Amino acid sequence: MLMFRSLLTAVAASALLAGVAHAQDVKTAEALRDKALNDRLAWDITEDLTTNIGPRLVGSPGMERAKDWGVAKFKALGFTNIKVDQFAKPSWTRGEESAELVAPYPMKLSIVGLGRTIPTLAEGIEAEVALFSTYAEMVAAPASAIKGKIVVITQPMVRAQDGAGYGIAGISRRAGPVEAAKRGAVALLIRSVSTSSSTVPHTGVTTNGADVVTIPAAALGVPEAEQLERLAKKGPLRIKLKLASTLDAGDVAWNISADIKGSEKPDEVIVIGGHLDSWDVGTGAFDDAAGIAITTAAAKLIGELPKHPKRTIRVVMWGSEESGGSSDAFLAANKSNLEKLVLAGESDTGADRIYSLQLPKGSEGHPAMKAAIQTLSPLKIYFDKNPAAHGGADIGGIEGAGVPVVNLNQDASRYFDYHHTADDTLDKVDPIQLAQNVAAWTSFIYLVADSDIDFRALGAAAPAQARH
């Protein structure tokens, strides 16, 4: 009887200790959250990268400087296991660009070549315009309406908190040049994939490659696209377009990573980060210096604790998101240890406030995730019951290979006003909203890192979920 009572006492004590440990984790997460709200590191990183490095297009001197900057930043902040993984990535360099409405009257047009577009001949292209209000309208048109003409697509983008309008409007940019080429067009101009009314045009990658049949393509500022739409209703239009660019098939890019080493299970790794590259037309503050800053600052704050959490936190600065390649390279570099990647998350929708949390399937009932939902609530972040998916372009490869992902969803209401433009600059970043991002990432990642949660097992055991 005495032995049984002793056993009960031991079990009760163990349960109490477990409860205290969990409560301590919550207290630590809350303290990290509150500290992050008043911490300047994310702002300083964003300012440093956009000011001292500037635009960071793959293959440019700016990207080379950014690689060295990333290594130096990790060292200065006390990260360990710093790695630079090089991978092959053909680079594209923009040259001189111009466009002009020739008829019914002369007018210069604000354009920017789409990323990786092929150039025109040196003398440019002048042709009659075939204007369509949507991509679908262009695809449905007979080739006779398009052959020999410069196609103009004026499809607008819808503003939405979750950025849902981007995928719909973006097809003109991604697939438009190839589809217009199939129908005999000589060039393509699209209304910028943008939620603003600015004359500043938006670039962004289009379909390209040695085996791709395409045509020169550029984006127009929104008012110019609307002006062409009005003019086309009154009579024929002619445009002259010049685009210059070069391609280096033998270039490289880099994924840079560094760790806050786990104290008990250092081989179990949580991957977070943003992408280091940017387009050449702005300084890439929203896209994606802020994502680099948010995740680096979050990991640094956790690393300042007297004792690191159990698991390792790995921050990655992916080196070629805008034109692709870093996801496949990261997957290839981690194929032998995918089972040790506990969770992955990417910050790549600017710097405005996080409004919702999506967790890996079946994990919301785990104590650590209950604590996370509770800790994020004062930041005005709600739990979205739809399981996390499509966690980011750079983690798409490892997500497809089975690594669980988390979505800390940012308000994208104004992100696509500045995305891929010369206006993507530091002044667009709100320090208060930036700090809210850091607070969310810091507290959430700490709770995962100091727990034993197994997202894969929970997902496998969970019943099929209907979308809410």
From TrEMBL:
**What Gene3D superfamilies is this protein classified in?**
3.50.30.30, Zn peptidases (3.40.630.10)
- Summary of subunit composition and partner proteins: Homodimer. The monomeric form is inactive while the homodimer is active.
Is Endoplasmic reticulum one of the keywords?
yes
Q: Which organism is it from?
A: Caulobacter zeae
Gene Ontology terms: cellular component = extracellular region; lysosome
Q: What is this protein called?
A: Carboxypeptidase Q
**Which residues, if any, are the signal sequence?**
1-23
Q: What residues does the Peptidase M28 domain cover?
A: 255-441
* First-listed, main subcellular location of the protein, grouped into a coarse class: endoplasmic reticulum
